[in-house]
Amino acid sequence: MIAHECGHHAFHPNRRIEGVVGFVLHSILLVPYYSWAHSHAVHHAHCNHLE
Question: What's the pTM value of the predicted model, to 2 decimals?
């Protein structure tokens, strides 16, 4: 849950701390953080879009 919030920039006001925490937690989950954050942001930008 915290890893997901880091991807939304909702965990901590300092982006550097958020990036480190997100990177560490996603590494534990074996999910690359920065590529996941990018694809997740694209997902939210086009949520409920049929094309």
Answer: 0.74
